[in-house]
């Protein structure tokens, strides 16, 4: 349903705001007045993945840590969940990756910016236990490299800012954004390829050959080769189709030509099939039904 990215300086109170938001969303979902789908609220942070703060001391260690976090995001994104990302999320390019993952999953997005000054961040950092602190040089580097979210870019919007003096997150506004906001469809760069079955070419060939044979047998059972009419095509005991033949003799060569055209079109569809653009049912029954319709359309057009 939604992916909510929390962003801010280190030790700015991101986890505190994430917990406030989680409680608010759970209360809204538990409200008797709520009549929407059943949703699960969860939060994901570095501790959930056992990522130590020391990974940010070295860029070579930070890169696989960010990749592990993004992988966890992809696993948890779904249309029946509200996922709160309580991570660093300080690089705009990384927030764009999260945005693309959310679009691919078909869920809404929003960003919550936990605002504070670098001085406040450092002061709050110094009050934490030693095991929860960053190396001083790492803290300075993370603050220096932080890229503030902007409502002007699509991957950060809608953007909600929480000031240090705010007692709570803007729950109502966030709720409206993730429940009734715009759900952007995946673009060509983020679409998931739908892979047809490995035996699809065999199924295409076998099914269309069987249909051609049934049509030839049905035509031979007619009073004359050039008399039309509706014939039955029993592919199996469960799969039975009907076809209206034209008032002329349908040759084997014509049926073989239509079969080749049908298979060629489906081979092309296989190479282009992506979610939301060309989803297909590759079962024997579906292929047979489409082939019968294709033949009948060509008979009517000729």
From TrEMBL:
A Pfam family that the UniProt record links to this protein: KTI12
UniProt-listed InterPro entries: KTI12/PSTK, P-loop_NTPase
SUPFAM superfamilies: P-loop containing nucleoside triphosphate hydrolases
Keywords: ATP-binding, Nucleotide-binding
Record GO terms (molecular function): ATP binding
Source species, domain of life: Eukaryota
Gene3D superfamilies referenced in this protein's UniProt entry, alphabetically: P-loop containing nucleotide triphosphate hydrolases
The keyword ATP-binding belongs to this UniProt entry's keyword annotation: yes
Similarity comment text for this entry: Belongs to the KTI12 family.
This protein's name: Chromatin associated protein KTI12
The species this protein was found in: Calocera cornea HHB12733
């Amino acid at each position: 349903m939604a992916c909510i990215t929390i962003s801010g300086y280190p030790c700015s109170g991101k986890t505190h705001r994430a917990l406030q938001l989680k409680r608010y969303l759970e209360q809204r979902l538990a409200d008797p007045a709520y009549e929407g789908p059943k949703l699960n609220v969860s939060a994901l942070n570095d501790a959930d993945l056992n990522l130590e703060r020391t990974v940010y001391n070295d860029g070579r260690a930070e890169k696989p840590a960010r990749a592990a976090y993004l992988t966890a995001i992809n696993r948890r994104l779904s249309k029946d969940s509200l996922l709160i990302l309580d991570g660093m999320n300080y690089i705009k390019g990384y927030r764009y990756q999260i945005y693309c993952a959310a679009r691919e999953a078909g869920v809404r997005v929003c960003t919550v910016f936990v605002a504070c000054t670098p001085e406040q961040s450092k002061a709050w950092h110094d009050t934490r236990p030693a095991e929860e602190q960053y190396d001083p040089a790492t803290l300075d580097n993370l603050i220096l490299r932080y890229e503030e979210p902007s409502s002007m870019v699509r991957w950060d919007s809608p953007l909600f800012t929480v000031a240090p003096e705010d007692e709570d997150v803007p729950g109502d506004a966030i709720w409206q954004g993730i429940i009734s906001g715009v759900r952007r469809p995946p673009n060509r760069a983020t679409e998931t390829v739908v892979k047809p079955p490995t035996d699809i070419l065999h199924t295409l060939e076998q099914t269309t050959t069987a249909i051609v044979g049934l049509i030839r047998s049905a035509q031979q059972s007619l009073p004359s080769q050039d008399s039309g009419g509706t014939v039955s095509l029993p592919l199996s005991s469960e799969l039975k189709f009907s076809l209206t033949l034209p008032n002329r003799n349908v040759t084997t060569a014509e049926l073989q030509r239509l079969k080749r055209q049908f298979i060629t079109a489906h081979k092309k569809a296989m190479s282009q099939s992506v979610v939301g653009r060309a989803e297909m049912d590759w079962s024997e029954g579906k292929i047979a039904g489409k082939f019968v319709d294709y033949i009948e359309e060509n008979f009517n057009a000729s």
